[in-house]
Amino acid sequence: MTARLTEQCVRDVIAGVVERIATDDLGTSEDFYDFGFDSLDHAQILMAIEEAFGVLIAEEDVDGCRSIRAILDHVARPVEPAC
Asked: Within a 10 A sphere around the Cβ of 49, how many other Cβ atoms?
């Protein structure tokens, strides 16, 4: 069973991945790139979320997951069955 993904969980993952930037002031809907993260940070955050919570963020969805809120919304979406 996967743990429930919450805002605090995402913040904890971000803090563990991006140690060079204090994330305390990161707004829930603030774009990671506007906050100062780069593409490597973004990729590492999403990979850590996938690993820690057993979720999959497909390659085509990566660009849409650029904030805490966007990640939470993505994970909460119903999974569409493959044809």
From this structure: 22
The pTM of this model reads 0.86
Whether the CB-CB separation of 37 and 72 falls below 8 Å is answered with: no
Is 81 within the bounds of a domain? no
Rg (C-alpha) for the chain, rounded Å, is 12
For residue 43, the domain's CATH number is: 1.10.1200.10
Q: What is the pLDDT of residues 48-80, one digit of tens each?
A: 999 999 999 999 999 999 999 999 999 988 766
Domain that holds residue 30: 7-76
| DSSP state, residue 61 | G
